[in-house]
Amino acid sequence: MNPGTLNWQSKLVLLLVFPVVGAELLLQSLWWLHQYPSIAFWNLGLSLLLGLAAWQSKSATVRGAVAGAVLCALLMFATTSIPYAAWRTDLTPVLTLLVLTSLATRTGRSQKQRLGTAEDKHGRLASQVAANLGMAALVCNGMTLAWMIGFGPIDWVEWRQSLIFAPGLAALAEAAADTVSSELGQLWQGQPRLLTTLQRVPAGTDGAISLPGTLAGVMAALIVSAAGVWPLGGTATLFWVSLLGGIFGLFFDSLLGATLERWNWLGNDAVNFLSTGAAAAAAFALLAALLRVHVG
User: Fold this and answer.
1) Average of pLDDT values for 261-280?
2) How many domains would you assign to the chain?
3) In whole angstroms, what is the distance from residue 169 CA to residue 264 CA?
4) Cis peptide, bond prior to residue 83, ω within 30 of zero
5) Cβ neighbours of residue 154 under 8 Å, at least 6 residues apart?
6) Which among 78, 144, 206, 258 counts the fewest CB atoms within 10 Å?
7) Cα distances (Å, whole numbers) of residue 237 to 94, 159, 164, 241
8) How many CB atoms lie within 10 A of CB 293?
9) Residue 247 included in any domain
10) Per-residue model confidence as pLDDT tens digits over 160-218
11) Domain for residue 296, yes or no?
12) pLDDT tens digits, 34-43
């Protein structure tokens, strides 16, 4: 991949995410500070602590940690309900995602260094954080605002909360699945296969899949989806739709890797951002189909 192309696409992801996220977070913070100041302080404070923890553990650079804190704060505000409890927000699935991806990244680091695929020791960049969490924050906050504008305050009914939160949770599930499948799949001793041709390729090849890596990714998506169900309502619909959306996004990521990324048309940040978007879109489409059947 040409470094100029990669840098340009990474900057584009930042440009697509943070102007909107920054404006949404400012509006959310001002509203909650006016209505429930303690909730605003808790959400902002916990997000800041999460960012500091990511920086101190070298899971992210300084800018990456700041980006993560901003995105986490918006996800928390978008999923906050009354009576308030911090764990009853997207903080729970986000923490689950971070733990899973951090463990997967650190597992077998020496082997990954020999392959030349180990992550930078300084941690994830702001563009990488935006590519993995940005879509979830945009979708979750956008769906919540759209529902409140169209229908009024959120009523915690199964179909309504699934419609609001499933696409965002699917994006988080895909982000976890992609990282875990990639990081653990590299450690498999056998040769993975390219998704499009099933040709055997070296470990770490864009678009390569293996059974162990795929199963690890599906398990990561399952764990993140499950971690979001109870805090966000506890419905089977929310779990299955977010899980299936995350799995769809995982294979969509491999498809992009085997085609556009291998052809040097897309960089990794762009692929990750589009894949989380595909997961959210798949979850939304599945919910729409289920709702049509349910209403019909």
Assistant:
1) 96
2) 1
3) 30
4) yes
5) 81, 144, 147, 148, 160, 161, 164
6) 144
7) 20, 8, 12, 6
8) 8
9) yes
10) 555 789 999 999 999 999 999 999 988 887 789 999 999 999 877 899 999 999 999 99
11) no
12) 999 999 999 9
Residue with tokens 């879109």: 281
- The dihedrals phi and psi of 124, each to the nearest 5 degrees, come to -75, 145
pLDDT at position 69, please? 97
- Cβ atoms of residues 176 and 254 within 8 Å: no
Amino acid at 208: A
Considering only CA atoms, which of 88, 85, 19, 76 is closest in space to residue 51? 76
* DSSP assignments along 131-177, one per residue: HHHHHHHHHHHHHHHHHHHHH-SPP--HHHHHHHHHHHHHHHHHHHH
Q: What is the DSSP letter of 206?
A: T
How do residues 240-257 score in pLDDT, each as one tens digit?
999 999 999 999 999 999
The answer to whether the predicted template modeling score (pTM) of the entire model surpasses 0.70 is: yes
- Radius of gyration, CA atoms only, the chain: 19
Residues across the chain: 296
Portion of the chain with pLDDT greater than 70, in percent:
89
| Average pLDDT value over all residues in the chain | 89
Is 103 among the domain residues? Answer: yes
18-24, Cβ contacts within 8 angstroms, sequence gap of 24 or more:
18/67, 18/70, 18/130, 18/134, 20/138, 21/70, 21/71, 21/74, 21/134, 21/137, 21/138, 22/70, 24/74, 24/141
DSSP states of 179-199: HHHHHHHTT-SS--EETTT--
Burial 11-37 (b: 16+ CB within 10 A, else e): eebbebbbebbeebbeebbeebeeeee
118 secondary structure, DSSP code? P
Could you count the other beta carbons within 10 Å of the beta carbon of residue 158? Answer: 14
Q: Is residue 286 part of a domain?
A: yes
| 78, 167 Cβ separation under 8 angstroms | no
- Return the pLDDT at 116: 64
